[in-house]
Amino acid sequence: MDATDKPKILIHAPREEPEDVLGKLRDSGYDIAFGELAWQLPRGHHEDALASAARDAVALMGTSIRHTPISRRVMEASQRLRIVAKYTVGVDDVDTDAATELGIMVCHAPTESNCFGVAESTVMMMLAMLKKAVERDQAVRAGQWREPHLGTTYLGRRADGYPGITIGIVGLGRIGTRVAQLLAPWRVRVIAYDPHIPPGDFLLAGVQSVSYETLLRESDVVSFHVVLTKETRFMLREEQIALMKPTAHVVNTARGKVIEEAAVARAIAEGRLRGGAIDAFEEEPLPMDSPLRALGHKVLLSPHSASFSEGGELRPGIQWAVRSVMTALSGGIPDNVYNKEVIPRWRERFGGASVTG
Question: Which phi and psi (to 5°) does residue 106 adopt?
Fold first, then answer.
């Protein structure tokens, strides 16, 4: 069979896919096409080129591509498109509403490597802030020693009556739950807000369920672990910051547009918040004129790499995406469909039928 006759899989945003993984797809009878670097670069928008590349594709797979997202127009470029498979947990760069209307499954990759890597980095960032790890290191290098202003926060409750701090988790999915588990030995009070999970999940995670407003008022650290949706977009703005303690810290290892960066930066600069730790930003890479850069040690910044670890990060996600694509192209339903409401429509269009005949 000539390559032009084979069903096309477009890797819209490549990320060093292992050759054995690509070989598995090719050996199964698929033609692999790779997306151009141009539409993956920051501050670009190349919908025309991406739609052209997606023409006649039966599957799209890849990592995040926020500056040229997988739009309705891109998905409509192929009547044969069955699945968009992401290597990542988040799908905010895919128009999932349009995918559902079009009968296209969107699959994501909430692997332990991705989710638990983010959870571990979240706890690291909390501890680095509260224990002033960076400030103490730089003080010693500058010839200072045990400076009075470098006293730190004791996290857990003590027998002498010290109650410990309260950590608020916004979003108690895989990542939020893992953060709660990692914090358990510290004997801190952990509260959480998530309107989409059953009460039993809070009990299993060992956290107290509270309203969002209560969480903001009572927390010494507010940590966000939500996907970016219409509901969560800029869910921390001036109005919500006004509810928080002036001694509170904000942690965002979720998505940049969950918090309004300018409002958070102003609050920290004006002493209405004590500090923050941020791994995901509204615009990436972080612009040089971002007000966050002017806050010194009051903010800990990370280049959207909370899940990045040796031997981990996206490699397991790539394997999940390949498994999802091969299942969907064989007429089956993967077990990691994000827009589950599409499944009945998808079954009507493609169920049981293989693209290779």
Answer: -115, 120
Q: Is 255 a catalytic residue?
A: yes
Q: Is the pLDDT of residue 1 over 50?
A: no
Query: From the candidates 174, 189, 255, 274, which is the catalytic residue?
Result: 255
Please tell me the CATH code under which domain 112-301 is placed: 3.40.50.720
Helix (H, G, I), strand (E, B) or coil at 281: coil
What is 3-108+312-350's CATH number, 3.40.630.30, 3.40.50.300, 3.40.50.720, 3.40.50.510?
A: 3.40.50.720
> Would residue 178 show up in a list of annotated catalytic residues for this protein?
no
Which residues fall within 8 angstroms of residue 205, CB to CB, at 6 or more apart? 172, 176, 177, 180, 181, 192
Length of the chain: 357
Burial class (CB in 10 A: 0-12, 13-18, 19+), 323: middle
104-132: per-residue pLDDT in tens? Answer: 999 999 888 889 999 999 999 999 999 99
The span from the CA of 188 to the CA of 191, in Å, is: 10
Do residues 215 and 243 touch, judged by C-beta distance below 8 A?
no
- 249-252 β-sheet, strand order: 208-209, 189-193, 166-170, 221-224, 249-252, 275-278, 299-301
Q: Which of 80, 266, 272, 304 is catalytic?
A: 304
284 given a catalytic annotation: yes
Candidates 72, 284, 323, 349; catalytic one: 284
Q: Do domains 3-108+312-350 and 112-301 have the same CATH topology?
A: yes
Domain boundaries, the chain: 3-108+312-350, 112-301
What pTM, to 2 d.p., does this model score? Answer: 0.86
| Both structure tokens of 99 | 């995918």
Rounded to the nearest integer, the mean pLDDT of the chain is 93
Query: What confidence score (pLDDT) does residue 111 get?
Result: 87
Alpha-carbon distance of 23 to 265, in angstroms, equals: 47
DSSP alpha helices (H): ranges in 13-111?
Answer: 19-27, 47-54, 72-76, 96-102
Burial category of 268 from C-beta neighbours within 10 Å (exposed 0-12, middle 13-18, buried 19 and up)? buried
